[in-house]
Amino acid sequence: MITRLLSLIRKEFIQIIRDPRTLAITFAMPVAMLFLLGYAATNDVRNIDLVVFDQDQSSASRRLITAYKEADYFKLAYVVSSEDDLRHLIDNNSARAGMIIPPDYEKELTAGRPAQVAFILDGSDPTVASTALAAATLIGQTQSTNIMMERLEKRGMGGTFQQPIDVRTQVWYNPGLKSAYYMIPALIGQILQFLTTILTATSIVRERERGTIEQLIVTPLRSWELVVGKLTPYVLISFMDTIEILAVGILLFRVPINGSLTLLLVMSALFLVTTLGIGLLISTIANTQQEAMLTSMFTILPSIFLSGFFFPLAAMPQWLQALSFLIPLRYFLIISRGIVLKGVGISSLWPEVIALVIFAIAVMGLAAVRFRKSLD
Question: Cys-Cys link to 184, which of 50, 121, 157, 249 (CB 3.0-4.6 A)?
Fold first, then answer.
C-alpha cells in the first residue's frame, strides 16, 4: 500500500515539475499578493493634500496652519488667494481638503470669541474623506484646547485648571494601527484557499481530460489512496507557501509573530483539509479545467468579501453576517490574527477550531463520497 501511494505521489510531483510555469506562479503569487495587499490595500491614509486660503495672514492663522502641517495626516500642497482657486484645486483632484481662515480670525481670538474656520473635504473618496474629517476635527479640538489654556495662564489660572474628563487611550496588539499587521495574517488563509482549491480541482480534471484517470482506476490503487496521492503534493506546496508568506511578512513588513508558530501551522493544516475538500468536490462537478477554474472562483470570491478579509463583518447587513458563518475562511482569519497579533493560545480559539473541524469533516466527507462515485 505504501509503495503504491508513494508511486502516485512521485508521479504527481513529476507532473508538477513538468509544468514549470504553473509551479513558478504557485510560489511567485504569494509574494506578489503580499506586495500588492501589504502596500496598496491599506486604510492608513497619510499626507492628504491640503489647500489653504488664509485671509487673515496673522501669527494666529499661521500657527493654526502649522498645527495641520505638523500632523501626519495633511500635507500643505497649495496656498491660494481666493476661494475660487481653492474650489478649482479640489475639483481637479489636486487637493483632497481645503481650509478657509476668515480675515478676522486673530481678532476674534483676541477678543475671546470663537473664531470659525471652514474645512472643506472631497467626499468622492469616502475612505480618505472619513480619515481627513476625523483628523481635522481632532487637530482643531487640540488647537482650541491649547488656546484656552493660554488664556487661563494669562489670567493666572493655568495651574488650577483641569480638564473635567481625562481620557487616556491605549491600543493593544497593533499600537501603530498598521494595516499590514492586520492584512498579512489573513493572507495566509486567502492564499491557501486560492492555491489549494484551484490546483486540486484542475489537477484531477486534467487527468480526466487527458484520459489518464482511467489508467489510474485500473491500477490496484484504492479510491482513498488515489485521493491522498493526488492531494499530498499540493499540501506540501501549500505549507511551503505558508512559510514563504510568514518569512516575507516578518522580514519586509516587520509583522511580529506573538503566538505559537507551531499552533499556526497546525491550524493551517486543519484549514487545508477544508480547502482541499472544496477543490476535490469541484473536480467531481467540473468536466474541463476551464470549468473547474470558474467554479473555484465562484467559491473564492464570497470568501474574500464575507470572511472579514477586506471589510469588517460588523459593518455588513445582518443577513450577510449570518451568511458569513458558512464561510470557513472567516474562522481561520480569527485564528491566524489571534495567534499572530494577540499571541493567544488554543484555549481562546476553541469556537473557531470546532467550526473548522466540522467544516473539514463535512466537506472532505462529501467530496470523498462524490469522488468515489465519479470513479465508479
Answer: 249
